[in-house]
Amino acid sequence: MRPEFQTPQSLEQAWIKLRRMLENNLSFGDGTNPDNLAGQWKNYTTNAVADTEDAVSHTLSRVPIGFLVFSASKAGILYKGSTAWTSTSIFLKCSAASTVVRIFIL
User: Fold this and answer.
1) pLDDT, tens digit, for every residue of 57-92?
2) Residue 2 lies inside a defined structural domain of this protein
């Protein structure tokens, strides 16, 4: 059995094992496919009218907790819209029109 899957014998051992697993092994993936962080990569172009809400679909099968912006084609702020997020869509607005963004939905 791999060492990271063995049962720790104390709280201290558990903490050490968790720290080792997290130190160098957290990854968003390759920019297309996620790795060991539960999320989904998404590319989309924001609305042609600034500050207009867009529905962005996802396949997480749960309501996301947030998103991270990894790139944007223009200076602008991408932010949460007023519509409640669901297990299939998030709703975002951008202060700049027609901005191509790459986000990671968590």
Assistant:
1) 999 999 999 999 999 999 999 999 999 999 999 999
2) no
Q: How far is the C-alpha of 64 from the C-alpha of 51, rounded, in Å?
A: 21
Look up the domain containing 58 and give its range.
Answer: 7-105
**Residue 1 within any structural domain of the chain:** no
Taken in order 36, 38, 42, 46, is the CA torsion positive or negative? negative
Total domains present in the chain:
1
Structure tokens at 41: 């990569």
In 3D, which of 41, 32, 31, 37 has the Cα closest to residue 105? 41
- Does pTM surpass 0.90? no
